Amino acid sequence: MNNPFSTNAVEPDISLSICGYSKVLDIISNKWTALVIYAMEDGIIRYSDIRRRIEGISKKMLTQTLRQLERDGLVQREITPSVPPIVEYSLTPLGVSLLEPMRALNQWTSKNYVWVEKARASYDQVDQTE
Amino acid sequence: MNNPFSTNAVEPDISLSICGYSKVLDIISNKWTALVIYAMEDGIIRYSDIRRRIEGISKKMLTQTLRQLERDGLVQREITPSVPPIVEYSLTPLGVSLLEPMRALNQWTSKNYVWVEKARASYDQVDQTE
DNA sequence: CCGTATCCAGTATGATACTG
DNA sequence: CAGTATCATACTGGATACGG
Fold first, then answer.
1. Given an 8 Å threshold on Cβ–Cβ distance, is A116 in contact with B8?
2. B47 and B87 in contact (C-beta within 8 Å)?
3. What is the rounded distance in angstroms from the CA atom of residue B106 to the CA atom of residue B103?
């Protein structure tokens, strides 16, 4: 391939640490991450309101997800030290910049997910007849 | 809270099964999936050539990843029953349609990943001084 | 209100050896 | 060449209880 005298010499040219696909996915592909980002799309929101909006998320997982996003620079955390405290979260400009490619994914789902479901049903059908 | 006179009544409106972000990510966010798709971007490719191109992937994980993609209708598998057999993989039209949003993610990485790394370094720095 | 700490179960991945 | 089978391990996520 990359040597004119060989027909099938192939060197590894794809790796986890280099592929741009993998690097973003590493950031956004934890179970709750996409949902938490989605909850912040409209602007500043309190911890407990995120928790109320997302069905089934525990405090532990919400906190953990927010901390990772904060560490990656995608989310900002603002504390008002009243009693009880008010903690508000929002996307940083870097976080906002991620919305565009994520919306592209979302649109793909709207248009095409029905075909994925059909493919799965068909594949599983064939599987059972064997 | 859950009464009509409260100012901050919030019902869950985000869930794993409905959010479009989460549904695509479920398809493409396994460890090797993005890399395998990446290896097929240029067209038909043999099993062993994918394996040679992707650094560190085992036969087990490659097969498992390809089977999932096939089940989801994103990849087609073509067998030539010679001895030894030739098995070729390629993206289906549905699989090809995913390339566009994935490339958007890739471009985001090219432009912005450096900021993620800086944010992480800064966050971890602060962490240690505590 | 906004978390942390602990422990535990389920899943994802990996190493290795074998096969048509 | 293109897989499968088996076993081991690591990581993720959930339940529960407690704290400033």
1. no
2. yes
3. 5
Q: Tell me phi and psi for residue A44, to 5 degrees.
A: -60, 135
Instruction: For residue range A66-110, list pLDDT tens digits in order.
Output: 999 999 999 999 999 999 999 999 999 999 999 999 999 999 999
Which whole-number Å values give the CA distances from B94 to A114, A115, A118, B98, B124, in the listed order? 11, 8, 12, 7, 41
Partner A contacted by B79 (CB < 8 A): no
The amino acid present at A97, given as its one-letter code, is S
Interface test with A, best of B14, B40, B47, B102 (most A CBs within 10 A): B14
* Gap from A83 CA to chain B (nearest CA, Å): 18
Q: What is the CA radius of gyration of chain A?
A: 21
Would residue A15 be called left, alpha or beta, if left means φ above 0 and alpha means ψ between -120 and 50 degrees?
Answer: beta
Say if residue B14's pLDDT is above 60: yes
CA B92/CA B111 separation, integer angstroms = 29
- For B17, the closest chain A residue by CA position comes to A55
Q: In chain B, positions 4-63, which contact chain A (CB-CB < 8 Å)?
A: 8, 10-16, 19-25, 27-29, 31, 34-35, 37-39, 49, 52-56
Cis peptide before B84 (omega within 30 of 0): yes
Residue pLDDT, tens place only, B79-107: 999 999 999 999 999 999 999 999 999 99
